[in-house]
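Bit of a strange request maybe. I'm writing a small parser for structure token strings and I need a real example to test against, not something I typed by hand. Could someone generate the tokens for this chain?
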Amino acid sequence: MILCSGFKTFEKNPSKCYEKQTYNYFCKINFVNFFSKIIQQSSKKYNVDPNLVKSIICVESSGNIKAISRSKAIGLMQIKQFSAGKEVYRFQGKSGQPSIYDLYNPKTNIEIGTAYIHILQEKNLSGIHNLEILRYATIVSYSNGPNMLLKIFSNNRLSAIKKINKLKKQEFLNYIKKNTQNCKLGNILKKL
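Reply from user aminoacidic:
Good idea to test on real output. This should exercise your parser:
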């Protein structure tokens, strides 16, 4: 499960990805207690559902503040300093990107991850009317990038949003499952 979610040090066999449910249960209990205040503050600042932030932390790192993926995504929310980190810095009016040290700091990591969720919902996925589908689209986009999600529906962003808006939740999820072979994405959808 963890490998398919992007965290490489817990499970090395992708065929066993779906068998590690107890670790995620531990994640939910553990990090809620330790990081709840930080999650609440960041969620309020960026107008993001705190339960969505918690879900992404469980999917991305299982609550491990030292998690690092093969693609160099770091920390609780698995932030890549040169992509999501850089985009959030631009959004915040800063130049550059967060340092690796910054991303290992849980408060900074949660703040950047929550800001990135806000950017996804307000910019990349803007126009999706069904809030439940927007939630699923956000989780998929957070893990795989918004372009990957939208290109499943159309090469044109507005056409993709229009197609998504015609679907019910289960149709949306089935369409994604049918049109991608991504292990990470499949594992995320099984958890939803």
